[in-house]
# Entry
Amino acid sequence: MIATDPAFRAALDGLELIDHPVQLRLRSRDFYWYSPILKAELDGKAADLIVVPRTVDEVVRVAAACARFGVPLVVRGGATGNYGQMVPLQGGVLLDMARLDRTLCVERGRGRFEAGVRLGDADVLCQKQGWELRMFPSTRRQATVGGYVCGGAAGVGSIRYGQLRDAGSVLALKVVTCEPVPRLIELRGVDIGKALHAYGTTSIVVEVELALAPAYPWVEIATAFDDFAAAAHFAQALGESDGIFLKLDSLMAWPLPRYFERGGAITLERRYVEDRAITPLYEYTWNHTTLQALKVDKTVTYLQTIFPLGANVEALIASHEMFGEEVMAHAEFQRRQGRTNCSSLQVVRYSDEARLWEIVRGMETLGIRLSNPHSYILEDKGARVLSADLQLAFKREADPQGLLNPGKMSRWTAA
Amino acid sequence: MIATDPAFRAALDGLELIDHPVQLRLRSRDFYWYSPILKAELDGKAADLIVVPRTVDEVVRVAAACARFGVPLVVRGGATGNYGQMVPLQGGVLLDMARLDRTLCVERGRGRFEAGVRLGDADVLCQKQGWELRMFPSTRRQATVGGYVCGGAAGVGSIRYGQLRDAGSVLALKVVTCEPVPRLIELRGVDIGKALHAYGTTSIVVEVELALAPAYPWVEIATAFDDFAAAAHFAQALGESDGIFLKLDSLMAWPLPRYFERGGAITLERRYVEDRAITPLYEYTWNHTTLQALKVDKTVTYLQTIFPLGANVEALIASHEMFGEEVMAHAEFQRRQGRTNCSSLQVVRYSDEARLWEIVRGMETLGIRLSNPHSYILEDKGARVLSADLQLAFKREADPQGLLNPGKMSRWTAA
# Structure
């Protein structure tokens, strides 16, 4: 195969390369195994060669080599995605960004990071200067800045600051094109959409400039309700309370909290502190909810859904009543288009694929739309058509051979 | 009159008293003269005696003396109100809080102040510790903390943090009752509504605990549009952009900006700095808009209106088209019930009272409701019925003789 071609290896001379089969297998995976469907499709997929760049120049060299030799190139951040975003479908090079991890600046509401900086490290560093990340995924400790903007959409903080795609969240992306002579492009404003949430299919994100929030002394609170509908209305009202400054507003139906018990009362109130020995509350939320359930029960999987604006609480309660404990309701409240809405990562007692899609069709009758977590296809994730067109056009320009994360962008595959 | 009664004066022995007629006249006024209607009603109203307490104990002594002698008692903050909130209708004592001005604490998101602390001073002090006021009126430099919570509703910052009455904005009020043996009561939670926005009719607010926001390096930006409708849609979209952290989102129709010109271009972008020599952008907004217009044209007055949720931009544009330059459109965007809405302080070319109410009726056909700025009556200001009932009940308990700011609470007067 081309990745072991001596001429190709020579082009990468002096770079850190890894080709041990165990490493290739382990590092080519993310958390797609939450989905039995993706597990069947993606198990065994692996890169042929891992390259670990330490500078942007080294990234440029790898991109140039892949373009010249026609080798697929997939970028790996913290590999905390849930849809196989970084799983190489056609082998080739896996570009592991773990060592491209310098913080370039933190100042007055903005921070600029190399793509491989871990979000938790970035956040702690910002906090020392009185700032914090506006939002982060529940995988904050492992996930990287680059991986988040390429594969994520929202997170802890979205109840106040909205989505990653909202103007003002991501201030700039520096990307490397995949061409024989790669270009370095600084994307700002609407152009950020060319690479944001594109799974690295359009270019290689090497630097990320994020808007920061002033650091806040957070408090973690858990509250129990006897009734799901009452809890759902409370979560919505809390999310609409402009005077209560929130970082997270999560709703879990029973029996989900049972998976979280750690020998204490479920209700909680404590000051948030950075401490590796304590599981932060956010590690029970977003898609960590599913992970916590999977730790206890390997047979569950999950759905990911978007709720109708202005009627989300009603839809949430109706779906809870429709499916009961088969689909354990779990909603993450967040700002969307200036309104308090929720999306949901429901934990599902899995029987088979047919039943899963039946559940999805049932949800659709309630106005709840799927953002399919059982697909590795970019366009199945509710990416807006505007971004999809922009990204396809940019890919034609920046990756004319279609080498970047091949098989993930269906519009490119179809074209 | 009782305020000059030797026995009453003896009860106030040792307190700072002022009874010079010029001082009595000047200090009994606020900015009600923006309204030709209030001007006719309130000109000449004045207290009989001013007391300037330096401690809460001194406030208690004044309250006790007024209760024993049946003397009306009105509290004066910065006297920046626009509805005669602090104008004594029945003479008596004016309690000038200017020297009750200690900052009691600033820590981790909360600040506690004596009522007479000026908002600008409080804000600067908080900023030194990395915090800032969540919201303040455009009269920030003069207005006091106590006056704001008793007579204000929202302000600069409301586009992000909502209204003063929203849970989490005001954390506590310490009040003194008007009884022969006054009580000191700490109000928290829903009880805050007993004194919040009550014009000092229910009790005397002596301490205020406010939620603080992390300090932010603000930038002032002014932008010109050719078309009012485009500007209105932009202001709404900006206010709904969760990723853009705003402090102020104000919309002014031409010719309002002409009143503001200071020999330069109208468009502006500069870092906000505390500097007495520079007029901050917020001193052209909220009801400073009207003041800036009045400085140039003494014949204008204003309206104050609330817009329909979800249809506010359409109503704004329709009213601009209905009245043109007679009613110069001016909107302050803010969060209300979790949504981006606006209220308006329209500058009106005044002809007579009949025409003013005709304009109001025209507005009402567009779904725009008046929060009457030409009335000194508390209940005419859109106070919610819930608060009105709570306040009436609390007044019965804390001011059984009805001595506090008499004539302002219509429910009391009627009962």
Q: What stands out?
A: Residues 102 and 315 of chain A are 44 Å apart (CA to CA). The first strand of chain A starts at residue 16 and ends at 18. Chain A touches chain B through 31 residues (CB under 8 Å). The radius of gyration of chain A is 21 Å.
